Amino acid sequence: MSSLNQPSAERATQHEKTLEEPATSYTSSTTSITYGTTTNLESNIPVQDASSDDDIKPEADVDELPPDGGWNAWLQALMAHLVIINTWGTINSFGIFQTFYRGYLSRAASDISWIGSMQVFFLFVVGVFTGRLTDAGYFRVVFAVGSALVVIGSLTASFATEYWQLFLSQGVCVGLGMGGLFCPVMAVLSTYFKQRRNLAIGIAISGSATGGMVYPIMARQLLPKLGFGWTMRTMALVQFVTLLVANIFMRARLRPRRAGPLIEISAFKERPYLLFTIGMFFNFWGVYFAFY
């Protein structure tokens, strides 16, 4: 009986294992299916990683696309023309003062030339700092201060009777004001154009010819009739009106760039730019002999 019962017991045990195996297999396959389904579903869900953020153009980049035309852009070119009238146009007009001051001040031509030379010097040197301030978002402040210095310098020069007074007012004060106008205005104007940038800058720079004609004609006509004081005050009034209009309508377009060095030293690692800078440095050594 024990031998007969033993196979029966073994068969019962095997039968129980057989019943358990499908359940185990089913559970395992279910787990596999569950994991597989989860994996497939997750793979079908678009996941935005950090690297994909670079493919999406931020709003600032969209704003940086220049309009390259339109009423507002060409208005900026016209306003820049008015500004250049009162910077390079004034510098181009200094020849008539050079002749007048020799008799008015009884000074040598080499002494008088320092007045006009200081205007050019400060126009470029101050531009190193005002250009960076413009990038940082202070264009309105820099532009307003520069305009005020130009007008104040010309106005105070009208009361000058000594050489040092003209040197400080017409040379230093006006020169500092020009440094707050020229570089920032040209930088802002360039952001409005791409394909037509050369034309826009040409319109602006032609203000040097406009000022070079208007101010000498004014001085030549007014000096004999009104005298030096009122001639300078009349020119200061013209500067005030034109620069006021430019302050009202000229606007920086790009968002401020607070971070960054004062001077991009890395730019000089580019050979074309470095050679261009060196060439322009020596070029300007000889340009202004004709002026002074």
TrEMBL record:
Source domain of life: Eukaryota
GO cellular component: membrane
Occurrences of domain Major facilitator superfamily (MFS) profile (ranges): 73-292
Biased composition (Low complexity): 24-39
SUPFAM superfamilies: MFS general substrate transporter
Region Disordered, residue ranges: 1-62
GO molecular function, one term: transmembrane transporter activity
Lineage, top ranks: Eukaryota, Fungi, Dikarya, Ascomycota, Pezizomycotina
Topology versus the membrane: Multi-pass membrane protein
Residues spanning the membrane: 78-100, 112-131, 138-160, 166-187, 199-218, 230-252, 273-291
Keyword presence, Kinase: no
Subcellular location per the Swiss-Prot or TrEMBL entry: Membrane
InterPro entries the record matches: MFS, MFS_dom, MFS_trans_sf, Proton-linked_MCT
Biased amino acid composition, Polar residues: 40-50
Family: Belongs to the major facilitator superfamily. Monocarboxylate porter (TC 2.A.1.13) family.
Species whose genome carries this gene: Colletotrichum spinosum
Keyword Transmembrane helix appears in the UniProt entry: yes
Record's protein name: MFS transporter asaE
Keywords, ordered alphabetically: Membrane, Transmembrane, Transmembrane helix
